[in-house]
Specification:
Number of helices of chain B: 5
Radius of gyration of chain A: 20 Å
CATH topology of the largest domain in chain B: Alpha-Beta Plaits
Distance between the termini of chain A: 18 Å
Structural class of chain B: alpha+beta
Strand content of chain A: 15-25%
Largest sheet of chain A: 4 strands, antiparallel
Number of helices of chain A: 5
CATH class of the largest domain in chain A: Alpha Beta
Strand order of the largest sheet of chain A: 3-4-2-5
Order of helices and strands of chain A: HHHEEHEEHE
CATH architecture of the largest domain in chain B: 2-Layer Sandwich
Oligomer: heterodimer
Strand order of the largest sheet of chain B: 3-4-2-5
Structural class of chain A: alpha+beta
CATH superfamily of the largest domain in chain A: Lrp/AsnC effector binding domain/regulation of amino acid metabolism (RAM) domain
Helix content of chain A: 25-40%
Number of strands of chain B: 6
Shape of chain B: elongated
Radius of gyration of chain B: 20 Å
Chain lengths: 161, 155
């Protein structure tokens, strides 16, 4: 066993687990066996990564497209930086917003708040965007909805080596 | 678009365990107890949903991209007639984990995650140079909401 540091073990766990847990009665044991460490160590490392926020959640990851959530809209809002903190919390708390991020303003890109909206179809999507527009109100100078027309690539995180 | 019908047990399996999957030696037994199934039934159903139906991508952790490397959201303004070729060029980088076509003049949006900030900068430069397209580099400033899954409406 040459990798003994926790961060080395974490990196190997990330690489293996981005493909998902094996669907067997003792999945963490199977993972531990695969990389030659004790099962308890795998559980401790995963608990630690959850605590530090490296792992957002552990669970079943649904394929929203297969479930009929065909419309995925990246809504972007031109909101002054000093108002984003409060509005971002409100927007992020809405049940149909899966991600809500602040990103930097650019010369060609005035939008500072990004909220990802999932819906079954365009009509429902428009209703949800309207709800957002009402909530944000005049704080947004402009907004746009960038609907995804195609997924060209979607994989878990991968690292070279 | 096709929508795969699920029975009530399958729905609960998908919906109820988007987070808080147990970190204990036999986690599927907890799911089974909650849903009044056997551990074997839970494993079989999840396997079916993952493989046959493609309704579940996987069961496991969701990692925070910037928690384990250096990442950004980038976009390219691609002339429509070059979109296929440019998208293929971008997707070919193993550091690119999401790549979407979107309705906008910036029509190609992708997430890059690299092991180090240097590597991230090199990949961005490389893509800008090879495609010759106008690029936006929009790294995260602040996350107001992290993806904890969302309740699925089954109607």
């Amino acid at each position: 066993m040459h990798d003994t540091k926790p961060e080395d073990l974490d990196r190997r766990l990330v690489r293996i687990l981005q493909e998902g847990l094996p669907l067997v009665p003792r999945p963490y044991h199977a993972v531990a066996e695969g990389i030659g460490v004790a099962p308890e160590e795998v559980l401790v490392r995963l608990q630690d990564m959850c605590r530090r926020g490296v792992i957002r959640r552990i669970g079943a990851i649904p394929n929203h497209y297969a479930l009929g959530y065909g419309a995925n809209g990246m809504t972007v809002w031109d909101i002054p930086e000093d108002r984003i903190a409060v509005l971002g919390e409100h927007v992020g708390a809405l049940p149909f917003v899966s991600h809500c991020y602040q990103r930097p303003r650019r010369p060609l890109w005035p939008y500072t708040l990004f909220a990802m909206v999932h819906a079954r179809d365009r009509v429902t999507m428009d209703q949800k965007v309207n709800t957002l527009a009402t909530l944000i109100g005049s704080a947004a100078r402009d907004h746009q909805v960038l609907v995804s027309t195609r997924i060209l690539k979607k994989t878990g995180l991968r690292f070279a080596g | 678009m096709t929508r795969i019908p699920l029975n009530p047990v399958e729905r609960r399996l998908v919906d109820s365990f988007q987070r808080n999957f147990p970190l204990i030696p036999r986690p599927f037994r907890i799911l089974a107890e909650t849903l009044r199934l056997t551990e074997g039934e839970v494993l079989h159903t999840l396997g079916q949903l993952a493989k046959a139906a493609g309704v579940v991508n996987r069961v496991g952790p969701v990692f925070r991209p910037h928690g384990i490397g250096s990442s950004t959201l980038a976009a390219l303004r691609v002339p429509p007639e070059r979109l296929e070729a440019v998208a293929a060029c971008v997707s070919a980088y193993e550091e690119v984990n999401h790549n979407y076509e979107r309705e906008h003049t910036f029509n190609l949006w992708f997430v890059i995650t690299a092991a180090t900030p240097d590597r991230l900068a090199r990949v961005l430069e490389d893509i800008a140079h090879r495609t010759g397209c106008e690029m936006l580099n929009l790294p995260l400033v602040h996350a107001h909401h992290i993806d904890l899954g969302f309740p699925l409406a089954w109607n």
